[in-house]
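Ticket #4471: structure export looks truncated?
Reporter: QA, pipeline team
Priority: medium

Steps to reproduce: submit the single chain below to the structure queue and open the exported record.
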Amino acid sequence: MIIYQVLPRIWGKGKFADWDKKAFDYLKSLGVNAIWYTGVIRHASGKPFVKGDPGSPYSIEDYRDVNPYLAVDPDNRMQEFSMLVARTHEAGLKVIIDLVPNHVSPDCQDVPVYDRYDYDWSDTRKIDYSKKEAWDAMLDIALYWADLEVDGMRCDMVEMVPQEFMGWLISEVRRKYPDFLFIGEVYNKDNYRAYIQNVGFDLLYDKSGLYDILRAIICNGASARNITRNWQSLQDLQPHMLNFLENHDEQRFASRWFAGDASKAFPALAVGALFNGASYMIYAGQEVGEAAPEGVEGRTSIFNWTKSKSLSILYEYLHACKQLESDNLKLLCGYRKLFSLLSDPVFSEGFNYDLCWCNSILTGFDPEKHFAFLRYKSLPLKHKAEAVLVVCNFSDYPTDMKINLPEDLRAKKELAWLPAKVDVSVSAWGYSPVHL
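Actual output as written to the record:
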C-alpha cells in the first residue's frame, strides 16, 4: 500500500471539491492507492483556547461533523464530503481519515473527559475511559464514518489510551466491516508486537525504527548497518510497518532542519519502499521538494492558515498546465520511477535477502554508507525466480562495486542460476535496481 497524506485545506482552494480526476490521476501516476485526508473531522476554531487559526485538527469539537471551511457550501458540507469519498473510490483509491481517541476540544460534548490535558496540548482535554459511555461513544463514532464508506482510520497517539479499549474497538468495527483498515501512531518499539498481535492494528508507524535510523544516517553520518539491525528486530512484524520520510509531525526532508536537499531522499526511499514489503507513506509536496520555509523549523503548520508554495505550483501544474521548475520535475520523475517498481510482483509479493553481511569494503562496498539487498519471487511453471538486486548509496560520492551473492542464497533451487558477483554503479545519494 502507498498512502498519500494531505491536509485538504492547503490543496487548491482548500475545499473537498478540489480533489478531482486530475488530482486522482496524478496520485495514481505515483502508484498511490490510498489517501489520508488529514484534518477532516470538525475541530475547534476561532475560540480563546485554540492554538493558531484555524486551529489544530486534533482538537476535536464534533466527531460526527466535518470542518465547514472545507466545503464550498458549509451548510452542505456532509454531502460534499460524501461526494469526495465517492470520487476517491471511483478513481480506485481508498479513503483514510483520522480517529483521535486520546483527547478532544475542551468544548466537545461527545465523550466524557478529565479536566486535564497531556503535554502542552492545552487546546484539548483527555478522554476518560474509566467510563463505559466513552467506549460506547467512540465505537459509535468509528462506525459512523465506516457507514459513510470511509475505508480506514489513522489512530492518533494510541499508546495514551488503554490497549483493551483499542482492541475492543477494532474487533467491534470489524464485526460489521471486516476489511476496515486501522493504522496506529505508536512510538515505543517494545509495544509494536502487542499493538499488532493483541490490539489488532493493520499498520504501525515505524518512526522509532526505520525513520529515526534513516534520519541519523542522512543527518549525522550514522552507520547504514543499523538498517539491518532494525529489520532483524522487527522480523515477522515487518509487513505491518508503515514507512515514511515525512508526515505532518516531522520536519520536511528538504528543509534545512533535515537533509536540506530533496534529491538526497532516494536511497532512503528505496530502503523504505523496496526492501521489506512494508507499506509506504508520502506527505503531500514531498515529491516536489517542499521545504516549508513559511513553517516553524521546517514543518508545514497544522495550526494556521498556510500556503505551501510547492503544492500551489503542483496544483497549477495539474490544473492549468503550468510547468514545474526543472529541479521539481526531475524530483517528481524520480519518485514516479521508484514507486513504479512496486507494481512488479518481485517487490509487492516477493521475498527479501539482506546482502550487507557478505559484502565488504574490499569489493567497493562500504557497510557504513551502502546498503544492498535482493528481492526475488518464484515464477509459476518455472524452476527459477525473478530477482532484482538493489544497492543504495548514502554518501556524497558515486561508487562502483562488485556485489557478492553468497552460496547459501544460490543454494536455493529457484536461485541457482544467479551469478556469484554482480557489478553495480551507484550515483551519490542514489540507488540502483539491477534486474538479474
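Status: closed, not a bug. The export was complete when the record was re-opened. Leaving a note from the reviewer for reference: The mean pLDDT is 95.
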